[in-house]
Fold:
Amino acid sequence: MEKEADSKNKGMFSAAVAASRKISEQFYKLELVFDGSGAQQFARARAGQFAELDLANCKLPQAENIPDDLKDSANRKILLRRPFSFSGVQIKGDKTNVEILYCAVGPATLRMTTLEKGDCVSVLGPLGNGFSLPNDKSKAVLVAGGSGAGPIMHLAKQIKADSPNVEINVFVGAATREKLPFENCRFDKLTTGGVKTTVATDDGSAGDKGFVTDCVSSWLNESATADENKLDAKETIIYGCGPEAMLEVLAKIAERKGIDCEVSMERMMACGFGVCQGCAVECKIAGGNETIYKMCCKDGPVFDAREIVFKTKV
Ligand SMILES: Cc1cc2nc3c(=O)[nH]c(=O)nc-3n(C[C@H](O)[C@H](O)[C@H](O)COP(=O)(O)OP(=O)(O)OC[C@H]3O[C@@H](n4cnc5c(N)ncnc54)[C@H](O)[C@@H]3O)c2cc1C
Ligand code: FES
Structure:
């Protein structure tokens, strides 16, 4: 498994907003355009890497557009940059466009919704280590929960471009149809062609009813026994991005089946590049019972699932 992503090319860049819009009940899409050295650095950004955006000077939406559950926190001053992964990176001549799929959950992301075409945003990145490409595999199983869909979309596009012989199976889960991160629920448009997509919602309002990890589990079991398209654990890799409980279940499924698995972990982040030590992830030391703390921003956010001591205990 190739692992080459890193943040050695990171920098502080000014990006212009190329587009910003609401795409579903809960999700927004922001498209940033970089030129000069920012364009060069972000052109190399890998799926799972992220950037820290300075949203302190963005204005709040009109009071009537602030959801009731965010009214109390909306006025909180924004001191720190906020981390976001990418749902796509496109090189357009000497510019690079970076797409971010995000959910408005608090004061900074609420402000982010008011960005308009032509606005400038200070961006620190690309940061962290992204997903490795499945160059020695024939099947990739990509699993997203909620806003984890952004980096999973990016990864699907990268695998298609760089490892065209790998079969890509995407699984996306959310609590309800409204919470799916797709425009008009058009999850078939996740990426252009050739990607098998399965959707699950907890209440069954779209796709299969139940947890997305149940869909992954039954798909793996079915593929393991079907004559056609038989699953070879060594030829398969699972990638996950979403809530920690979902990642823990994925890690267990992968361990039981002997399949490699990479998960993108989330922690609150301040600096984003290993200085503040605020984003610790407990990791197992191979071959013993000891653990160490790694920094989610610098050593991750993508980790080998076997390393992680999950906090959720599902
Ligand atoms: C590496 C990384 C990549 C990310 N990529 C995306 C993305 O592509 N799209 C997206 O919508 N969001 C993403 N996030 C989460 C995003 O950074 C937060 O939603 C954002 O910082 C919230 O800021 P806020 O001021 O609006 O809300 P806050 O008031 O800061 O947070 C709102 C709520 O979300 C919780 N929260 C915030 N950040 C985190 C976190 N990192 N881990 C766990 N809980 C958190 C808080 O505890 C609080 O309950 C990513 C986070 C990380 C660490
Ligand atoms: S956010 Fe500062 S060390 Fe990770």
Observations:
- The chain has a mean pLDDT of 90.
